[in-house]
Amino acid sequence: MPDLLIELFSEEIPARMQTRAADDLKKLVTDGLVEAGLTYAGAAAFSTPRRLALSLDGLSAESPKLKEEKKGPPIDGNPKAIMGYMRSLGMEAPDSWYADKIDALRTGEVITFSESSILFVQEVKGKRVLMATLEYLPRTAADIIAEVLEKTIRNFPWPKSMRWGDGPLKWVRPLHSIICILSDDAGAQVVPVDIDGIASGDRTRGHRFLAPDAFSVTGFDDYEAKLKRANVILRADERAELIWHDATNQAFALGLEVVEDRGLLAEVAGLVEWPVVLLGQIADDFLGLPPELLQTSMKEHQKFFSVRNPKTSRIERFVTVANMETADHGATILAGNQKVLFARLADAKFFWENDLRVAKAGMDPWLESLSNVTFHNKLGSQKDRIDRIAALAREIAPAVGADPDLAEQAARVAKADLSSEMVYEFPELQGLMGRYYATEAGLDASVAAACQEHYSPLGPSDDVPTAPVSVAVALADKIDTLTGFWAIDEKPTGSKDPFALRRAALGVIRLVLENGNKVPLTAAIDGHGQQRFSVVGIPLHKDRSLTETISANAFDLLSFFHDRLKVFLKDKGIRHDIIDACIAMPGNDDLTLLVKRAEALAATLATDDGENLIQGFKRANNILTQAEEKDGVEYSYGADIKFAEDDAEKALFVALDAADAKIAPAMAAEDFSTAMAAMAAIRPAVDAFFTDVQVNADSQVLRRNRLNLLSRIRNICLSVADLTKIEG
Amino acid sequence: MADKPRSFQEIILRLQTYWASKGCAILQPYDMEVGAGTFHPATTLRALGSKAWAAAYVQPSRRPTDGRYGENPNRLQHYYQYQVLIKPSPPDLQELYLGSLKAIGIDASLHDIRFVEDDWESPTLGAWGLGWEVWCDGMEVSQFTYFQQVGGYDCKPVSGELTYGLERLAMYILGVDHVMDMSFNDPQSPSPLTYRDVFKQTEEEYARWNFDVADTDILLQHFKDAEAECQRILEQPAEDPKTGKRIIMAHPAYDQCIKASHLFNLLDARGVISVTERQAYIGRVRALAKQCADAFVQTEAGGAAA
To answer: Do A343 and B158 make contact, defined as CB atoms within 8 angstroms?
Structure first.
């Protein structure tokens, strides 16, 4: 059982593409080999900035003999079709030859072709059709590998690939050499592959500067060991571990800690073949900058790790990872990096100090300049948008327990930092900078916090703000965005959601639910939306005003919220039919109420009584609906216990009275659990009634009274949720 | 030659000598205002077509919005790029490039030199390529690009393009923190000149003109004129009525495209182009570049049969 080693050696592969490329190499090659009939015991793929490698062990030496049946056309059919079929099997001959063979086949002769494949006539479902049994001879592993590797290289799924020189081949960057060797106890053997002049061999190179000479390898173990001697660590996880270990050790020695950043670690491990960790200084001038700012600037521009003093939480040093060992132990490299950082941070400090001046003076120039920034050409400027959010935040504030003045103020300044120099330079710092600037402007702490928190939650795993002012602004921002884009008909479709409206809707849902707030969405979208958007004054449709458009879309937007809510609750184990039953009830734009109802209903349906009551309800509803259709009247009032004959019937009256007495006040108090428990409690009486009593009695008095009684069951059940929507 | 260069001009001279020794034609700067060395027809147009090409040159470049009155240590509205274009890109282009760093005093055994992904795109030229920014000890010292398309045409063969930002690179090699402090010529010479002596005053003058004085109405008119002239040139019949020769005027037309591009940059610096208009202007320049490319590929230098 031989082992296979492949290496594709190129110019520097972008760090972000390496891991995926190694996986793709493994998948494409192993899939290709398996499809051709080979088997293998194990496979592992590797990547460095200059190479992709694949190691397969326990590969079968050749593919097995394979047989395949291939059905052809009827032997008595069109001779052209028969000839075409025979050609497709690889039988090439003059036309007259086929005629002879077709005659022979008709008489039952079996024709042997390409070694041991056979062609004959067989009866299938009463028809005499041609049938071939094709035999594929074993192919050597080398033969198959050469074919699969060439196909893999020519069709490699790089996110972006390029040509170079005057060749047509595409690779992520110029491809220089290919190792493709099969090795077993007898030794290693190159599998010959030639791709546009790049011939496979058994040679590679080490580190670009530390060990540039070419060398031969005999198999994977030899390859990995020789690479290490040539200053290349093949495994990305080994490089990452080494970097993290050295970095934390060096920081620890100074009583400091490295700020963890998995993404950066993976990226840096993809930028070096031979990591050398260097700990550098940040000039004193910059230690007063916000730590997040230092961290972002160092990471984005220089790919440095931040090193923090755990006592003060300040960023005091940095770690850079070089790809080089030098005689001066990295002194020149570190000095160069420090110098570059100095220039970067000098820029950042310049922006920060300019921004602080504007912030301390109240941020007015920023707010003014936002009127020149278009939010969306149909929805006005950022300033228009802020006016709308401020108005809505004030409106929503009481519902979320926030001071309306503070909520409005927070909404007015929450986007101010978008005009700051710092956020222009580092867009990812939006919000955070706003918080610093609002604090500098002397605004209330809750307002400053809202500047940062109103963007949240950004994703399903992001925390939801809880501070009332933040919640008010976060809701206003998202609801306004949704109302606006709905009004101009920019709704998400399929996989397209360029304005992240699904995320905004989910944000509203989580903000409302996790804080337990009662926010009537219809008012926020429709009535208040009309007021807010009337200031934009852009006609959206030829024949409809903006306010009419908003109104017309309000119902559709509420349905969108409900759809997102179904997805959200489904993940929490609540069935869609339960939600539908609750959406059908009044007050469905109050999501907290809606979910409370759904949760209570789900809990009730999970009980024995609840589950069975649904059957009772459905039976009552069916009988009643049929009778109402037949009689043309509605049985909705007048069931009287004095007409009750049967004990079960009397008992049901008592049970319904008891339920009514509990349900009405519980519903008024929005105590759905109590209401639904009271509803479920009628189940034994309902079951007994259906067992012992015949509704459609001969006596019309009894029948009418009983139908009216069923109507009471229906009313009780429909008063908590629309149980007709429940499935099963 | 001393191991370390002592002045800005020595770095330029060493690059010239090095690339000449590697077979490049050492061209002179293009005599028009451009935003980057790529605009030189020796790059833009010569990257098109099938003919082999190898050229290197210094290109003075202007970016009006980057003007800081000569006060910012790293930003200038007028600066120099060193540009190398070789077609087809040779297989050892990375090694050739590293050799050029060695020639200007960057010893690869002492520094950390890295090729970090950076794809290049010029919306105004309708061009893109893949490559890297080259880092030396964390500082970007060059752009390294394999051209894939120019003027909407696939580059066949592919050109390899190297661009060195000369001031930044020189400041690094010479250990200078402010560009104005850098020695322009040999500091030991009888009349030592710094970058300040040569360019501080012009940085101030141009910054004032670029930001506050340039007449935007005139600039707008010039832009329209350049656009119209470019198209008028390209509309001429291929056969010259006077000489009877086939003369497609790709280069004169391209000059107008360069003019339009620079005028757009000036208008941008004057702050009279809104965000939405910006895209439209870039699109207009790109349309000119595309038409110039269409014309060039029909000429002999552009690979058309003579």
So the answer is: no
